[in-house]
Design brief:
seven-stranded antiparallel β-sheet, 34 strands, 26% strand, elongated
C-alpha cells in the first residue's frame, strides 16, 4: 500500500492519482524542499520498507533504503545530488545496489523537480526502478559474445574486418591454414596485394554492392604464400555504420576444391561426377518437401547407407529427434532465402543406430534449373565433438577414476544444501582418506598406486544410492555426498559398507592388498553452512579418525572443531614464539661414572610462554614436528648450544673441555641441509667438532634405516660424535647397529629406574653395557636418581650417567656451579 507521510489534505495528489501510482512498476517517492519524504507508492514501500518517516531528510536518504554503490558495501551518497535536484535539474543514478528478498538488487534511481505555478521547485519526485533483470540479461549477452569470439577464433572458415579504404583491421587465425600467412603479417595492409589482378574489379564491385545492398557475395582468387592461387568465397557485409564494427565484415572460406570441381564439370560431365563421387564431404540434394533426390557415395561414412535415394528417406529421417525442431526452422529459412546458409552442427542417425555429429551448410538452388533443389553439404565432425566433450568432462571429472572432481562435488554439494534448506531433509558428507597409501605407492610404484585408486573408486561406486555423488578430490582422498537420508544411521551404514567393500582383498601388480580408510562424517540438517565449510568439517572429522587409530569413522561435532581450532592456535602460538625468541636452553650435566666428574652436558629446550609459564618439550615438540617448525627451532638450538658451551670452554684452562649433546628430530635428520647447518654452527662458535654429540632416537633411525645410514655418514664426516638415544625402547637389529656410524649408546631411563630391584632391567642394562664395550661405543645411562643406581652402573662398567641425582637441567648461568662438583657414592 502507498502512504502519505503527511496529511493528504496538504497535497495536490488525490486518491485517484495514488491508485494510478500504486500500479506503476517503479517506486515513487515525493520529498519537499527540505528533503523530507511526503509520499511513497506501493513499489517504493516494497523496496524501501516501512521505516520512512517525516523525520528522515534527503541527507539520510541513502541510509533508510539501504542503498550502496554497486559491487561495494559503501553507502550511496544520494545527498550529493540534492543541490542539482533542487536547483531545477533532473538526475539519474544507475550504479546503486540494495538488498532484496532473494539477494542483491540493482536499482536505477531518477530524481526530477516538480515546479509550482510560479516556476519554482516545489517538490522533488524520486523513482526507483529494479533493473536487476536487465543487468542479468546484459551479463548473459556479454558471456554469449565472449563465446562467439572464441568460436570465431577457432573457426575453420575465414572472418575478417576491413576499413572503408580496404585496409585490413582484423582477420581470424584460419588465414594461416587457407593462405599460409600469419594474421600479423597482413593486418594493416590493403588486400589487393594478394588478389589476382583479373579478379580485383570483381572485388571492388562487391564492396560497392555491399554499400548499396548491405551484403554482397564474391568469389575471387588469392595468392597463397607458396605462390599458388586459391579460390575464396566471401560474403561482404557493410557494417560501416555500426559503431561496434565500423567496417566491412567478410565471411569467407577456401572454395578452391569446389571451383576446381566446377571447372571440371564444365570440361567433362564424367569428370564432374568422378570428383563428386570421391568428395570427402557428403553432398545431398533434397526437394522443397525434404525428399532426398541425390546423395554422394560418401554418405556411407556419415549415414551408413549405400544410396539414400533407394530407401525412400527424407532428410528429416536422418536427423536426431533432439535436433529436428532446430533443423526444421533452419530449413524453413533456407526455403525462403536463396543462397548459402550459415554452417550448423547437428546430430544425424547412422544406419547402425549410432549418432554422428556433422557440420552442414545448405544452399537453396531450387531456382537453378541444373540443380532444382537444396544442396546440403555435410562434414563428419564426430571426433572433434568427442574431443570437445572430453575436454568438458576433464573440467568436471577426475581423469584417473572417472569420479566427480572437486569443482563438480562442490556444485552438487551446493545443490544438496539448497534442497536441505528447501525441504528440511537430511544430507551427509563422508570424507575418506586411505590409510597408509604412501607405503603402497612408494613400495609398488605410482602405476600400482594409480591402479589401486581406480579399484577403490570402482568399489566406492557400488555403495552409492541413486542421487549420491562420489568424488576424488586429490591424492587418496574421496568424498561421498549423500542426500535425502532417512536418519543419521543410514549414513553410518554407508560408511560401514564402504569399509566392507574396501576390506575385500585387492590384487595390484600381483600383490594382494587389504585397504582401510579413515572416514569423517558431517551431517547437514539446516543448510546453514557453505559447501566448503561442510567439506572442511568432514575433513576435520576424518583427521580425528586418523588420530584415533585409522580404519574407523568419526562423526563431526562442535568439540572436534574446537580441538582443531585449539591445534591451529598451538601452531600459530609456536610460530610467534619462534619469531619473538621465547625459547630458552637449559643444560643437564653428564658425569663420568668412575671418576664422578662432569665431562659434558646435554642441551634441553624449554618454552618460556608469556601466559603458560615454562612449557616442557613434551607439550610443544610434537606440534613443532607436525608443522615443520622443528627445523628452524632445531637449527637455533644447535647454534646456540655450540656457542654457549664453546664460551665456557674458553674459561676452563685447568680442566678438559666439556662436550655438548644436542638432540636431532626426524625432520632434521631428513633435511638435506642438516650437515651444512651443523658445519656452520661449529665454525661460528669455534667449538671443536669432537666435542659436539648429536643424539638421534632409536625409533627415528629405524623408520628409514637405509636413508639414516647415509645421513649419519654425512654428519660423521664433519668430525662430530653420534649417539643413539633411548636405546632399548625401539627395534634396531644388531646388523643395523653395526652399520650405523655411531659412537655412543644412551640407555633409556625406564631401564635405569629398576636397576636395584628388577632383575630384568639389570640384565638389559648389563647387556647394553657389554654390547657397547664389544663394539667400542661409549655407554650413557639416563635418568639416574639414586646413589644405588649409580653404584650398580659403576659395577657394570657404564661410562657416563646423567639424571636428577647429579642435577636437573639448569639455566646456562648455573652450569658453572656444577663443574667443580665431584660426585661420590
Amino acid at each position: 500500500m502507498s502512504t502519505w507521510l503527511v496529511s493528504p489534505e496538504t497535497n495536490a495528489l488525490g486518491a485517484q492519482v495514488m491508485r494510478v501510482l500504486d500500479q506503476l512498476p517503479v517506486g515513487v517517492l515525493v520529498v519537499d524542499l527540505s528533503g523530507a519524504p511526503l509520499y511513497c507508492n506501493a513499489k517504493a514501500m516494497a523496496l524501501i520498507g516501512d521505516g520512512v518517516g517525516r523525520d528522515v531528510d534527503l541527507e539520510a536518504l541513502g541510509d533508510f533504503f539501504g542503498a550502496r554503490v554497486a559491487g561495494t558495501s559503501e553507502p550511496y551518497p544520494v545527498a550529493k545530488y540534492a543541490e542539482i535536484l533542487f536547483g531545477g535539474e533532473a538526475v539519474t543514478i544507475d550504479d546503486v545496489e540494495m538488498d532484496g528478498p532473494d539477494g542483491p538488487l540493482r536499482i536505477e534511481i531518477r530524481a526530477a523537480p516538480i515546479l509550482a505555478h510560479d516556476g519554482q521547485v516545489a517538490y522533488a519526485i524520486i523513482t526507483f526502478r529494479d533493473v536487476t533483470a536487465q543487468q542479468t540479461a546484459q551479463e548473459a549477452v556479454e558471456r554469449s559474445q565472449e563465446k562467439f569470439r572464441s568460436l570465431v577464433q577457432e573457426a575453420s572458415d575465414l572472418l575478417a574486418v576491413c576499413a572503408e579504404d580496404g585496409t585490413l583491421l582484423y582477420i581470424t587465425p584460419s588465414l594461416t591454414r587457407i593462405l599460409g600467412y600469419d594474421p600479423d603479417d597482413v593486418i594493416g595492409i590493403t588486400s589487393p596485394e594478394v588478389m589476382h589482378p583479373d579478379d580485383l574489379p570483381l572485388v571492388v564491385d562487391a564492396f560497392a554492392r555491399a554499400r548499396v545492398q548491405r551484403r554482397a557475395d564474391i568469389e575471387f582468387r588469392a595468392r597463397h604464400r607458396n605462390g599458388s592461387w586459391r579460390w575464396l568465397e566471401f560474403v561482404v557485409t557493410d557494417l560501416l555504420d555500426d559503431p561496434s564494427v565500423s567496417g566491412f565484415v567478410i565471411n569467407g572460406r577456401d572454395v578452391t576444391e569446389r571451383k576446381d570441381a566446377e571447372a571440371a564439370v564444365r570440361a567433362s560431365e564424367e569428370r564432374w561426377k568422378a570428383l563428386l563421387q570421391n568428395s570427402s564431404d557428403v553432398v545431398t540434394v533434397i526437394d522443397g518437401d525434404g525428399s532426398i533426390r541425390y546423395s554422394s557415395p560418401s554418405n556411407g561414412r556419415a549415414f551408413g547407407y549405400r544410396d539414400l535415394t533407394t530407401h525412400g528417406l527424407t532428410f528429416a529421417d536422418l536427423v536426431d529427434p533432439n535436433d529436428l525442431d532446430r533443423v526444421g526452422r533452419i530449413f524453413a529459412r533456407v526455403l525462403e532465402t536463396p543462397g548459402v546458409s550459415e554452417p550448423i552442427e547437428v546430430r544425424v542417425l547412422h544406419e547402425d543406430g549410432s549418432t554422428r555429429w556433422v557440420e552442414a551448410v545448405a544452399n537453396n538452388m531450387l531456382d537453378d534449373p541444373l540443380v532444382a533443389g537444396i544442396v546440403v553439404n555435410t562434414r563428419d565432425v564426430t571426433e572433434r565433438k568427442r574431443a570437445e566433450e572430453q575436454l568438458a568432462r576433464l573440467a568436471l571429472y577426475d581423469s584417473l577414476t572417472g569420479l566427480a572432481n572437486r569443482a563438480l562435488l562442490l556444485d552438487h554439494l551446493e545443490q544438496a544444501l539448497a534442497q536441505v534448506r528447501r525441504t528440511r531433509s537430511l544430507a551427509a558428507v563422508l570424507f575418506l582418506d586411505l590409510d597408509h597409501f604412501k607405503v603402497i605407492n612408494d613400495g609398488l610404484g605410482h602405476a600400482a598406486g594409480d591402479e589401486l585408486l581406480v579399484q577403490v573408486a570402482s568399489r566406492i561406486k557400488t555403495v552409492l544410492r541413486d542421487g549420491d555423488t562420489a568424488a576424488r578430490i586429490g591424492g587418496d582422498e574421496f568424498v561421498l555426498c549423500c542426500e535425502n537420508l532417512h536418519d543419521r544411521e543410514e549414513a553410518l551404514v554407508i560408511a560401514e559398507r564402504v569399509a566392507t567393500v574396501l576390506g575385500e582383498t585387492l590384487v595390484i601388480d600381483g600383490h594382494e592388498i587389504a585397504v582401510t580408510a579413515s572416514v569423517g562424517i558431517t551431517f547437514v540438517a539446516d543448510g546453514g553452512r557453505a559447501a566448503d565449510e561442510v567439506l572442511r568439517d568432514a575433513d576435520t572429522a576424518m583427521y580425528r579418525a586418523k588420530d584415533h587409530g585409522r580404519a574407523r569413522y568419526e562423526v563431526f561435532d562442535a568439540s572436534i572443531r574446537r580441538r582443531a581450532l585449539a591445534r591451529l592456535d598451538e601452531h600459530l602460538d609456536l610460530r610467534r614464539a619462534l619469531a619473538t625468541r621465547q625459547f630458552r636452553l637449559t643444560y643437564q650435566p653428564m658425569v663420568a661414572v668412575e671418576q664422578g666428574e662432569v665431562v659434558g652436558t646435554e642441551v634441553l629446550l624449554r618454552w618460556a610462554h608469556p601466559r603458560r609459564g615454562l612449557v616442557p618439550p613434551s607439550e610443544f615438540i610434537p606440534v613443532a614436528e607436525e608443522t615443520g617448525a622443528i627445523v628452524p627451532l632445531g637449527a637455533w638450538v644447535l647454534a646456540e648450544g655450540c656457542r654457549e658451551v664453546a664460551a665456557w670452554n674458553w674459561g676452563l684452562d685447568a680442566r678438559p673441555p666439556l662436550n655438548v649433546s644436542v638432540n636431532l628430530s626426524a625432520r632434521q635428520l631428513a633435511d638435506c641441509r642438516l650437515p651444512d647447518l651443523v658445519s656452520a654452527a661449529l665454525v661460528e662458535s669455534g667449538l671443536d667438532p669432537s666435542l659436539l654429540w648429536l643424539e638421534i632416537t632409536e625409533s627415528v633411525l629405524m623408520d628409514d634405516a637405509g636413508a639414516a645410514v647415509g645421513s649419519l655418514k654425512d654428519l660423521k664426516s664433519l668430525g662430530v660424535r653420534l649417539a643413539i638415544d633411548d636405546f632399548g625402547t625401539g627395534y634396531s637389529s644388531l646388523a643395523y647397529l653395526k652399520r650405523f656410524p655411531v659412537d655412543m649408546l644412551k640407555i633409556d631411563r625406564c631401564f635405569v629406574a629398576g636397576l636395584e630391584d628388577e632383575a630384568e632391567n639389570l640384565a638389559i642394562v648389563s647387556a647394553v653395557v657389554g654390547l657397547g664395550k664389544t663394539l667400542g661405543l661409549t655407554v650413557v645411562a639416563e635418568g639416574v636418581e639414586t646413589s644405588g643406581q649409580l653404584r650398580v652402573l659403576n659395577d657394570l662398567g657404564c661410562d657416563l650417567a646423567q639424571g636428577f641425582y647429579f642435577s636437573e637441567a639448569v639455566p646456562p648461568q648455573h652450569l658453572e656451579d656444577l663443574l667443580d662438583r665431584r660426585v661420590s657414592w
